[in-house]
Structures are given as C-alpha cells and as structure tokens.
Amino acid sequence: MNQNVADKLFQTAVMTILTIVALLMLFPFYYVFVVSFTSPVEYLRKGLVLLPSEWTLTSYKYLLANNVFVKAAGVSTFLAVVGTVLSLIVTSAGAYTLSRKRLHGRRMLLILILLTTLFNPGIVPPYLVVRELGLMNSIWSLIIPVLTSGWYVILMRGFFESIPDELEEAGKIDGASDIGVFTRIILPLSLPSLAAFGLFYAVAYWNTFFSAILYINKADLRPLQVVLQMLLIDSSSSSSGEIANQMSSEIAIPTDTLKMAAVVISTVPILLVYPFLQKHFAKGVMVGSIKG
C-alpha cells in the first residue's frame, strides 16, 4: 500500500514538472502567435499582450501587400518546390543505380559517397565552385550545390534494395527499359521513401539562409529566411533598418507585430506539410535505414 502511494506521488510529481516545462516551452510560440494577431493600437498601449481584446489581421495584410516580403516568399516557395523535385530526381536515380548489383564499381562509388558524409569541405571550396560556375547572384546557386545528399542516397539505396528483383525482371520481360522500370515500377512503390526525403529536402530549401548570404547580393533574390533575419535583428543595424523602413514607412504598424506575423508566415507552410506526409514518413525512413 505504501509503495503504491509512493509510486502515485512520484508519477504525479513527474507529470506536474513535465507539464510545467512543456508550458514554458510552448509559451514563446503562443506569444508569437498572439502578438501577430494583436491590434497595433492595443500592442502600443499595453506592450505585453497575453490575450488580445481585439483580433486583427492588420500585420498579415500589410506583410502580404509588401513587395519585399512577397518576393522573398516567392523565392522560398520556388526553392522548396523546384529544389525538392530536382533533389528527389537526382537522389532517387543515384540511389536506384547504386542498388543494382550488376553495376560495376558499385562498392567504390559507395565509399566515395560515404566520404562526403564524413568530411566537410567548409565554406571556401563551395564558394569558389559557385563563383567559377558563374552562379553568383543566381537562384540556382541555392539549389545546385545542395542538389543531393550522400547520406540520403545511401538510405534511399537501402529502400530500393528491399524491392524484390523479380519485379524488375518482370518489367524487362514485358519490354520495359531500365528507365521504364525505374519510372513505372520502382518509383510508384517508393512513395513512402520519396515522401520522407522530400520532406527533408523541402524543409532544408525553405529554411535556406546561410548560402543565400554567401551567394546572393540582389534584394529581389533574397529568400524569406534572410528577410526575416533582417527584420528580427536589432533595428540599429543597416540591414534591419532597410527592411524595416521598407515595411513600415507607409503606415504606423509596430515593428514587433510585423516580426511576429513574419515568423508565423514563415513557419506555417512547412507545418502544414507534415500531416499529409506523416503516414509515409516513419515507414520511408525506417525501411531505408534498416535495410541499408
């Protein structure tokens, strides 16, 4: 009896502590969300708003009507869509080729690909490659250098190896070429893997930041994360002043409400993708990691 009471007290204490910690971690997200929907007048009057008396879309309407923010959102959307599609094509094609046992030199290629996951060349070599290819101030400089990942190729190769060879042989008997087998048989069976790695690529492209700072100097080609960073940093800096002035010169909207609305807009699109890919996500990653 005493042991049961002690166990219940311990579980209650643990659950209470974890609940408090969870609430403390969720509060910043809640505050960002609330302030983004707060009336500018109310925010200026109160300073700290936990529950607005008036919910408004003023900050969102202003951001979505601002050319700087809209162009940045368009760049990030292009990176996430086009970059993800191209990355999946290259990664799946490379992984499928390496999964075929008849490929000569397959082991050496796998070793070379594995080395790319173990050693990081740093910043200078990629920068020199992008510059010599003439990709500076080009949106393709944010896609081509990171078009594929050696680690993703190895994991997807493991997934392709789990597909029976008899399916490929049946396709060959029916007259399909290697490309036909890959596009008509292998890829339709690989939707869980494609969904999982597509999500990884989409998140990476949507959050493009450091490479954009290195390769992009044109304001029209800045992705959303760069504009968001310029908006969030201290307004005393020149870059933040440029963005803030462009966004708040026409109407009097508190900068903080614009910041919070920008954070929500830059976060929600990726969050909305997860529920649609959740059923494929765990299966695609686990099959590739176990079989590989």
UniProtKB/TrEMBL annotation:
Tell me yes or no: is Transmembrane helix among this UniProt entry's keywords.
Answer: yes
Q: Which cell locations does it reside in?
A: Cell membrane
Q: Which residues cross the membrane?
A: 12-33, 72-96, 108-129, 135-155, 194-216, 257-277
Chief site of localization: membrane
For this protein, the record's InterPro entries field holds:
MetI-like, MetI-like_sf
Membrane disposition: Multi-pass membrane protein
Q: Which residues form the ABC transmembrane type-1 domain?
A: 73-277
Which keywords does this chain's UniProt record carry?
Answer: Cell membrane, Membrane, Transmembrane, Transmembrane helix, Transport
Task: Please report a single Pfam family linked to this protein.
Answer: BPD_transp_1
Biological process, per Gene Ontology: transmembrane transport
A single Gene Ontology CC term: plasma membrane
Q: Which family would the database say this protein is a member of?
A: Belongs to the binding-protein-dependent transport system permease family.
What protein am I looking at?
Carbohydrate ABC transporter permease
Please report the organism this UniProt entry assigns to the protein: Paenibacillus piri
